[in-house]
Amino acid sequence: MTDSLGQQKPVNIKALLQACRSKEETFKALVTLSKTLPRLSAEKKTEENKVKGCESAVWLVVEESHGIRHFKADSDAKLMRGVLVAILSLVEGKMLADIQKMDLKAELAELNLSSYLTSSRTNGVLAILNKINTV
């Protein structure tokens, strides 16, 4: 099931990733998810939209309409694009105050991504979460 932006609903992504029983299954699921993330145009890949602290290039665009936040993101790394889909599925269509009340680190911990989050990648994910909470 997808939302209006073509992104999968959080429950489906959570269930998909939690159902993975091996590193290989998780990798395949993340690659599949990466294909659902629309690519950003070159005009959106600006320094302002770039997330500092990520191992790979990651761009995050936050748009707000009537207090509701909408996110667009991209990365030059396929695996990171899958991780972005998982992260955005948690926050898409919510108000900033609601996002800030969430424990996004705990939510991500439930998605079985730990084997893919090396220390440098974890720093990048934390930078993404920080940008989601502050922009």
Automatic annotation (TrEMBL):
Residues 17-133 form the Fe-S metabolism associated domain. It comes from the Bacteria. It holds the Pfam family SufE. Belongs to the SufE family. This is Cysteine desulfuration protein SufE. InterPro entries: Fe-S_metab-assoc_dom.
